[in-house]
Design brief:
By secondary structure, this protein is mainly α. The protein has a domain of about 130 residues: Rossmann fold (3-Layer(aba) Sandwich). Helices cover about 40% and strands about 5% of the residues. It has nine helices and three strands, in the order ααααβαβαβααα. Strands 1-2-3 form a three-stranded parallel beta sheet. The radius of gyration is 25 Å and the shape is elongated. The relative contact order is 0.11.
Length: about 220
């Protein structure tokens, strides 16, 4: 059997034999001048402390082991399923105490009685912390338009990512976590208002509507 070494993308420096010889020259202290500078530049990485911190936070999320309703079943399949595994994104280490978690996934509808308990869990979580509203019920109450369910989790928690669906597929939750990682790195994607230049379509609060009625 004949073994042929071929350069990657035509770059001779990345050939296996060339790299071996360069390493031997470094060990014998025979590399100097321009070759030494190129060797050092290929192996140095400069960044800021904040970027390094965000990179570490992005790849070691600790979700809280917490579920509210039927969306929690989909969340479980994302965490422990061999097909959809959050370990690829560094977010499979579930913590069952808020003092060791930094990601809260609201997976289901939030009742009026449950809202203060969830807020307490959120306050006990580590800083910095993030929240994902998973599903239509936690985002906007979904089909439960009644007095017993909170009409949107953003009324008592700061929400970072909304994942639509009833329930969302595991791929949708993974996509939401990837978007959260982009936000942690400081490069969030544009919202739909910015993307489609849809300013002026915001819902007006009830107080503003009442004030306009009085002026009219």
């Amino acid at each position: 059997m004949e073994v042929t070494r071929t350069p990657v993308n035509g770059d001779q420096k990345r050939d296996l034999r060339v790299r071996q010889l360069r390493a031997q020259q470094m060990l014998r202290d025979e590399t100097a001048g321009k070759d030494l500078e190129d060797y050092v530049q290929e192996r140095l990485l400069f960044t800021t402390l904040e970027t390094a911190q965000n990179w570490a936070r992005k790849n070691c999320l600790f979700p809280l082991g917490f579920g509210l309703a039927c969306c929690a079943i989909e969340m479980i399949t994302v965490i422990g399923s061999p097909r959809n595994d959050l370990a690829r994104f560094g977010a499979e280490a579930i913590r069952f105490t808020p003092r060791q978690a930094d990601l809260l996934i609201l997976s289901g509808r939030v009742s009026i009685k449950m809202a203060p308990i969830i807020r307490r869990l959120y306050d006990q979580m580590l800083e910095p912390k993030w929240v994902i509203a998973m599903g239509a019920c936690s985002s906007t109450a979904g089909m439960f338009s009644n007095y017993a369910v909170v009409q949107g989790a953003d009324k008592f928690l700061p929400i970072d990512i909304y994942v639509p669906g009833c329930p969302p597929r595991p791929e949708a939750l993974i996509y939401g976590i990837m978007k959260l990682q982009d936000k942690i790195m400081g490069t969030p994607d544009m919202g739909w208002r910015e993307r489609y230049n849809a300013y002026g379509t915001e819902e007006k609060p009830e107080t503003a509507i009442a004030a306009e009625g009085e002026l009219a």
